[in-house]
Amino acid sequence: MKEENESKEVELDAWKGDFGDDYTKRRHCDKDLVNRIGETLFRLLTNIGVGPSSSLLEVGSNMGYNLIGLALSGWKGKLYAVEPNQKAYRELLEHSKGLIEKVYSADGSLLPFNDRSIDLVFTSGVLIHVHPERLKKVCSEIFRVSSQYILCMEYFSSTPDEQVYREKSGLLFKRDFGRYYLELFPSLELVDYGFLWSKVVPFDDLNWWLFKKG
């Protein structure tokens, strides 16, 4: 059992360690890009009916550019972040003062929030890096903490597909995350879905799904 648990957390250890540190170094954005990210998310959320007074939690926020951009774009609800990598966490603490309500050093498998305590919980390019054997636990925590909405923005594959990432295996897993959420939680209602195209928005090419809890 111990070996099985260790195999599930190899990818989490990588993101907490030097591999995650290197990712954080590559992700530094200038102020203009952060503003564009915030404007894109603000427009997406308000267009699909999520009011700008809603509280938001990002799971796996890295340095918090999504949330900082939202705050700078005028989002009025309280913003929260969870990040397991210590380098990114320290950067997030430094740059989010006065913009993000609370930042936690934690990962998605054990969120430090009460049940149904946040209006909307979201990930952006995070679930793709969660080992399939841990994915149910992370999504269940997201479902537990959300009071109204879940927003999932991830790479898409019609069938589960592990891919080599930065010349390493066990760190990138694509699938139909929308279908996965609906099969895992049949009470969820699909509100809307779409595609963020990197040619015109400051993200990777991501499919997104917005779900509402019953």
Keywords:
alpha/beta, two-stranded antiparallel ribbon, 8 helices, disordered N terminus
What does this structure look like?
With about 210 residues, the chain is an alpha/beta fold. It contains eight helices and nine strands. It has helices spanning about 1-10, 10-15, 20-25, 30-45, 65-70, 85-95, 130-145, 175-185, and strands spanning about 55-60, 80, 100-105, 120-125, 145-155, 160, 175, 190-195, 205-210. The strands form two sheets. It has a seven-stranded mixed β-sheet with strand order 3-2-1-4-5-9-8, sandwiched between helices. A two-stranded antiparallel ribbon has the order 6-7. β4, α7 (about 130-145) and β5 (about 145-155) form a beta-alpha-beta unit. The longest helix has 17 residues, at about 30-45. The radius of gyration is 16 Å and the shape is globular.
Named at the architecture level, the CATH assignment is 3-Layer(aba) Sandwich
Task: Classify the oligomer.
Answer: single chain
Q: What is the CATH class name?
A: Alpha Beta
Any idea what the radius of gyration is? 16 Å
Quote the beta fraction: 15-25%
Q: Report the order of strands and helices.
A: HHHHEHEHEEHEEEHEE
Q: Which residue ranges are poorly predicted, with pLDDT under 50 across at least 5 consecutive positions?
A: 1-5
Domain count: the total is: 1
Largest beta-sheet characterization: 7 strands, mixed
Could you give the order of strands across the largest sheet?
3-2-1-4-5-9-8
Question: Could you state the CATH homologous superfamily?
Answer: Vaccinia Virus protein VP39
Instruction: Provide mean pLDDT, rounded.
Output: 94
Q: Using DSSP, what is the number of strands?
A: 9
Shape: globular
Tell me the distance between the termini: 36 Å
